[in-house]
Write a structure and sequence with these properties.
The complex is a heterodimer of chains A (340) and B (317). Chain A is built from 13 helices and twelve strands. With 340 residues, chain A is of the alpha/beta class. Chain A has an eight-stranded mixed β-sheet with strand order 6-7-8-3-9-10-12-11, sandwiched between helices. In chain A, a hairpin with a 2-residue loop joins β4 and β5. Helices cover 33% and strands 24% of the residues of chain B. In chain B, α4 runs parallel beside α6 and α5 packs across α6. Chain B is globular, with a radius of gyration of 20 Å. The chains are: A alpha/beta (340), B alpha/beta (317).
Amino acid sequence: MEKGEALRVENLKKYFVVRKGLGGLLSSRKTEYVRAVDDVSFSVAKGESLGFVGESGCGKTTMGRAILRLVEPTSGKIYCDGIDVTSLNKKQLKSQRRRMQMIFQDPHGSLNPRRTVSEILRQSITIHKLADTKAEEDVMIKDTLEEVGLEPAEEFGERYPILLSGGQRQRVGVARVLVLRPKLVVADEPISMLDVSVRIGVLELLLRIRDEFGISLVYITHDLATARYICDRIAIMYLGKIVETAPTEVIYSNPIHPYTRALILAVPVPDPTVKMEELPIKGYVPVSVTDTFSACRFYPRCLYAEEQCAKEDPPLVEVEPGHYVACFRAKERDLTDQKV
Amino acid sequence: MALLEVRNLKIYYFTRAGAVKAVDDIDLDIEKNETLGLIGESGCGKTTAVFAFLRFVTPPGRIVGGKIIFEGRDIIPLSDEEMRLLRGQGIAMVFQGAQNALNPVMTVGNQISEVILEHESLTKEEAWERAKEQLELVGIGSERVKNYPHEFSGGMKQRVMVAIATACNPRLLIMDEPVTGLDVIVQRQLLSLTNALREKMRLPIIFITHDLSVIAETCDNVAVMYAGKIVEQGSAVSLYKDPLHPYSKGLIGSYPSVRGEKKELKSIPGAPPRLIDPPKGCRFSPRCSYAMDICRTEEPKLKNMGDNRMVACHLIK
């Protein structure tokens, strides 16, 4: 593990067994797998935010959960803050969890409705035994609530989640994580259920705690437009694989993989003078990918596919410093000369 | 005369805690061949307002005042039977969340022909043929007419919804958050489809969404709703280029784009008010950084600024 790295993931795989039912069990058909995450490797530096962007079903959420071992990875290594997370036993994992936390998508469903805000935070503190006395806990709760902008802290601490707006609830979600002073936070679509006018506030909060406490962020989203504002680097996922990764502005100014290009062109632009263009993509995302695949996952939908694409799986190759693309035709001009 | 004229429409929900003024005195005109975008945050009353155009408001909600004039006829006093005939043929709607709006135990062909049989005197076979044509129209092969909703993806279910809504050639189509929850590529395919349909069928559409960029790609005109009121109206191009109301400005300023220079985003402080007890004066005043004394006491009226622009703000003279 290199210095300055908060998270390193090597060849992470998560396969789900396809349930066959009774008929399948009796027949001798071989077990099928859905490759939700298939051989993904990356690293995140201290204080860096890496965005995973993809459509539903691309495996981004499964990957985020696998990093924290909320689902058990099928294979691969995960190093968080120098510790091999995949080799920890249950007890060790629990103490390690303090350093790696998650912010969930649904701020309504992820808070216990029968606990007040301060009880929710207190629970995190007691589980990880961060304070010796109740007075100490109270100070931590108050400081954290102020840190996430829920002021006056005494008043918000007394409230139940139902009395909070969506934006405030998500701030509680951030506070619950922040009180543990984690090194790594996986944020899974933290603003997609919030109203447009309050989204930016929560994004700014995430950026602020990242900078203030040196937290590394894995930001999972389907929304390329907001990812631009929070991520230092972006990885585009398609059917369990990273197809392209680059510094954020490079992804938007010089996307190379045909899927990335289609994805960026598809994002609606808040400007009525911009006309919709034809998308350079065909067909639909396949309903499920089982293990019958040994080709570029994108080739059935790709307008540039060649013979090779149907036979081999393209590796992730560096095309310019920091910019990796998994496409056999990445270096050819006819893909890149059309401006997005 | 406009196709649909809404005058002083008020819809309240009568709850134990008091009357929630979900839609409070709004005026709206939709012309033939117009695409209107109704934009606002959750709870601003946009869905409640269009539900009233189909008389779908159910207790504890009630239309407490105003007129909804469709093709010269006020629909509020119509009988249930007259209303039933108007739905589907006069005004049709694509509901939010196609996943739940389709019947899971009926084939899509039956669901489409059901609407046709309800409104037109055709035989079952003729209606079935029409259902196939409708599927082709929305870009699904007619061979899938016997499929059940679970055999379709989210985007295709939404297409089926469009096929049902347009089956009886309605004269006005309402789409409530048609692309919310769909992936961007599927979303784009659906937006292209609605744009094509609208040109082919010369169909006026009301688009309800919280997504500014969806409106920018589809609508001629935009009405911005906040806390049960329309605060600004105008053509999409002029409103996006030069928003007048501080709320519209805030909304556009907080909206990110993937194209061009990365602009600085600003959030609007606070959260939308509870409509049981909305703020006095301008409902946006507690969140408005330009608010003056008059904004907290007197409610601003919608003023006509010429060139189709209307705005309700004391700052605008």
